[in-house]
Amino acid sequence: MIIFRLLLQLVVLLGALLVHPGEASTYQTFANNHIAFPIDPSGYCDLMMRRKGLNQVRCKPINNFIYAPPSLIIAVCQGAGTHYEKNLFDSRRIFSVIHCTNTGRFPNCNYRGRAMIQRVRLGCVQRMPVHLAQLL
Known about the structure:
Blueprint: H1 2-15, H2 27-34, H3 44-51, E1 62-67, H4 70-80, E2 81-85, E3 88-91, E4 95-102, E5 111-118, E6 120-125, E7 128-135
């Protein structure tokens, strides 16, 4: 319950931040699309894609969820990552990632999940992640 309250406060606080000009994404969008913690991995992809509203207009072909506390993911942009180029940073630590692939047709989206251990490359704006650029 404490984690939920802290996450809610973080989302509200981050929602107030302005996005760097030219960036279409925000941390809140990034968090919705790619952070899932904690949740039971069984039936994970279908549940998370529905819960986060990522397949309302079409079946998104693929999506990756980072299964970690948001603080560890944010840290990649705040010194715990290695600068790659422009606003991209590579994580030094590995993360549990769930790779979801659609096997259905809209409106009956059906996702198959595969658990992986990967480093991630994040797009960062104002020291906050706004884009999951790549799995490394």
